[in-house]
Specification:
The chain contains six helices and two strands. The chain has about 170 residues and is mainly alpha-helical.
Length: about 170
Protein backbone atom coordinates (compact mmCIF):
# COMPACT_ATOMS: atom_id res chain seq x y z
CA UNK A 1 0.00 0.00 0.00
CA UNK A 2 1.26 3.39 -0.92
CA UNK A 3 1.41 6.08 1.81
CA UNK A 4 2.34 9.60 1.03
CA UNK A 5 5.53 10.65 2.83
CA UNK A 6 4.10 13.89 4.15
CA UNK A 7 1.25 12.17 6.14
CA UNK A 8 3.53 10.48 8.73
CA UNK A 9 5.19 13.71 9.99
CA UNK A 10 1.84 15.45 9.92
CA UNK A 11 0.28 12.74 12.13
CA UNK A 12 3.23 12.96 14.55
CA UNK A 13 2.88 16.74 14.77
CA UNK A 14 -0.82 16.45 15.53
CA UNK A 15 -0.12 14.11 18.50
CA UNK A 16 2.48 16.37 20.15
CA UNK A 17 0.06 18.55 22.18
CA UNK A 18 -1.78 15.54 23.73
CA UNK A 19 0.62 14.93 26.69
CA UNK A 20 0.57 18.62 27.54
CA UNK A 21 -3.25 18.61 27.54
CA UNK A 22 -3.39 15.56 29.81
CA UNK A 23 -0.96 17.15 32.25
CA UNK A 24 -2.96 20.37 32.31
CA UNK A 25 -6.15 18.44 33.08
CA UNK A 26 -4.45 16.48 35.89
CA UNK A 27 -3.26 19.72 37.49
CA UNK A 28 -6.66 21.38 37.13
CA UNK A 29 -8.55 18.62 38.98
CA UNK A 30 -6.83 18.99 42.40
CA UNK A 31 -7.23 22.76 42.19
CA UNK A 32 -10.96 22.35 41.54
CA UNK A 33 -11.28 19.99 44.50
CA UNK A 34 -9.45 22.42 46.76
CA UNK A 35 -11.86 25.14 45.69
CA UNK A 36 -14.87 22.97 46.53
CA UNK A 37 -13.72 22.63 50.15
CA UNK A 38 -14.24 19.25 51.78
CA UNK A 39 -14.33 16.43 49.28
CA UNK A 40 -15.82 13.02 49.94
CA UNK A 41 -13.79 10.10 51.20
CA UNK A 42 -14.15 8.17 47.95
CA UNK A 43 -12.58 11.01 46.00
CA UNK A 44 -9.65 11.49 48.38
CA UNK A 45 -8.91 7.81 48.92
CA UNK A 46 -8.18 8.41 52.61
CA UNK A 47 -9.44 5.95 55.27
CA UNK A 48 -12.19 7.15 57.59
CA UNK A 49 -11.10 8.91 60.77
CA UNK A 50 -13.66 7.07 62.90
CA UNK A 51 -15.68 3.84 62.68
CA UNK A 52 -18.63 3.75 65.07
CA UNK A 53 -20.59 0.58 65.87
CA UNK A 54 -24.07 1.13 67.27
CA UNK A 55 -26.43 -1.53 68.65
CA UNK A 56 -30.07 -0.54 68.24
CA UNK A 57 -33.11 -1.84 70.11
CA UNK A 58 -36.77 -1.46 69.27
CA UNK A 59 -37.60 1.21 66.70
CA UNK A 60 -34.43 3.27 67.07
CA UNK A 61 -33.06 4.71 63.85
CA UNK A 62 -29.47 4.34 62.77
CA UNK A 63 -27.60 7.64 63.26
CA UNK A 64 -26.30 9.40 60.20
CA UNK A 65 -22.56 9.39 59.60
CA UNK A 66 -20.43 12.50 59.45
CA UNK A 67 -18.08 13.12 56.52
CA UNK A 68 -15.08 11.46 58.17
CA UNK A 69 -16.76 8.47 59.85
CA UNK A 70 -18.54 5.20 59.11
CA UNK A 71 -21.51 4.07 61.21
CA UNK A 72 -22.26 0.33 61.46
CA UNK A 73 -25.67 -0.48 62.96
CA UNK A 74 -26.89 -3.80 64.32
CA UNK A 75 -30.31 -4.52 65.75
CA UNK A 76 -30.91 -6.38 69.03
CA UNK A 77 -34.16 -7.87 70.24
CA UNK A 78 -35.52 -5.65 73.06
CA UNK A 79 -36.23 -8.73 75.20
CA UNK A 80 -32.58 -9.76 75.06
CA UNK A 81 -30.89 -6.41 75.57
CA UNK A 82 -30.04 -7.07 79.24
CA UNK A 83 -28.99 -10.72 78.86
CA UNK A 84 -25.42 -11.88 79.34
CA UNK A 85 -23.79 -12.62 75.94
CA UNK A 86 -23.70 -16.27 74.93
CA UNK A 87 -19.89 -16.80 75.14
CA UNK A 88 -19.92 -15.56 78.74
CA UNK A 89 -22.81 -17.77 79.90
CA UNK A 90 -20.95 -21.08 79.78
CA UNK A 91 -18.29 -21.41 82.49
CA UNK A 92 -14.88 -22.60 81.27
CA UNK A 93 -13.54 -26.05 82.05
CA UNK A 94 -11.67 -26.07 85.37
CA UNK A 95 -8.28 -27.84 85.35
CA UNK A 96 -7.90 -30.79 87.75
CA UNK A 97 -5.46 -29.00 90.08
CA UNK A 98 -7.98 -26.17 90.59
CA UNK A 99 -11.01 -28.34 91.33
CA UNK A 100 -12.58 -28.71 94.76
CA UNK A 101 -12.08 -31.77 96.95
CA UNK A 102 -15.64 -32.90 96.15
CA UNK A 103 -14.84 -33.21 92.45
CA UNK A 104 -11.54 -34.92 93.23
CA UNK A 105 -13.32 -37.41 95.51
CA UNK A 106 -15.88 -38.13 92.78
CA UNK A 107 -13.04 -38.83 90.34
CA UNK A 108 -11.37 -41.20 92.82
CA UNK A 109 -14.72 -42.95 93.38
CA UNK A 110 -15.24 -43.35 89.64
CA UNK A 111 -11.75 -44.80 89.20
CA UNK A 112 -12.34 -47.19 92.10
CA UNK A 113 -15.61 -48.39 90.58
CA UNK A 114 -13.91 -49.17 87.26
CA UNK A 115 -11.06 -50.99 88.97
CA UNK A 116 -13.52 -53.01 91.06
CA UNK A 117 -15.59 -54.09 88.07
CA UNK A 118 -18.88 -52.75 89.44
CA UNK A 119 -21.93 -52.39 87.15
CA UNK A 120 -21.96 -49.47 84.68
CA UNK A 121 -18.17 -49.14 84.76
CA UNK A 122 -17.09 -50.54 81.36
CA UNK A 123 -14.70 -53.05 82.87
CA UNK A 124 -13.89 -56.60 81.72
CA UNK A 125 -13.63 -57.62 85.38
CA UNK A 126 -16.69 -58.62 87.37
CA UNK A 127 -20.32 -59.20 86.57
CA UNK A 128 -22.01 -56.28 84.81
CA UNK A 129 -18.77 -54.36 84.24
CA UNK A 130 -19.42 -54.10 80.52
CA UNK A 131 -22.78 -52.34 80.95
CA UNK A 132 -21.17 -48.91 81.28
CA UNK A 133 -19.34 -49.03 77.94
CA UNK A 134 -22.24 -47.46 76.05
CA UNK A 135 -22.65 -44.78 78.71
CA UNK A 136 -18.93 -44.03 78.68
CA UNK A 137 -18.86 -43.82 74.86
CA UNK A 138 -21.83 -41.43 74.89
CA UNK A 139 -20.22 -39.22 77.53
CA UNK A 140 -16.93 -39.14 75.61
CA UNK A 141 -18.77 -38.21 72.40
CA UNK A 142 -20.69 -35.41 74.16
CA UNK A 143 -17.48 -34.04 75.73
CA UNK A 144 -15.75 -34.09 72.34
CA UNK A 145 -18.64 -32.21 70.71
CA UNK A 146 -18.62 -29.59 73.51
CA UNK A 147 -14.87 -29.09 73.06
CA UNK A 148 -15.24 -28.73 69.27
CA UNK A 149 -18.02 -26.17 69.77
CA UNK A 150 -15.84 -24.17 72.18
CA UNK A 151 -12.95 -24.17 69.70
CA UNK A 152 -15.22 -22.97 66.89
CA UNK A 153 -16.66 -20.19 69.06
CA UNK A 154 -13.19 -19.06 70.15
CA UNK A 155 -11.76 -19.19 66.63
CA UNK A 156 -14.54 -17.13 65.03
CA UNK A 157 -15.82 -14.35 67.26
CA UNK A 158 -19.49 -13.62 66.83
CA UNK A 159 -20.00 -10.43 64.92
CA UNK A 160 -23.75 -10.74 65.20
CA UNK A 161 -25.63 -9.80 68.33
CA UNK A 162 -28.73 -11.89 67.70
CA UNK A 163 -29.32 -15.12 69.62
CA UNK A 164 -30.22 -18.44 68.03
CA UNK A 165 -33.68 -19.61 69.04
CA UNK A 166 -32.67 -23.30 69.17
CA UNK A 167 -29.96 -22.63 71.78
CA UNK A 168 -32.07 -20.34 73.98
CA UNK A 169 -31.82 -21.72 77.57
CA UNK A 170 -35.09 -20.05 78.61
CA UNK A 171 -37.19 -22.64 76.74
Amino acid sequence: MFRPVYLVPLAALSLLPLPALAQAQAQAQPQAQAQEGASSQAETGQPPQRIRQVTLTGNEACPTAAADEIVVCSRLDPNDQFRVPKPLRRPPEVPAQNQSWVNRAATVDRVGRVAGGLPNTCSPIGAGGQTGCGIQAGQAWAAEKRQQQREVEQATPESRTDIDIEDDPRD
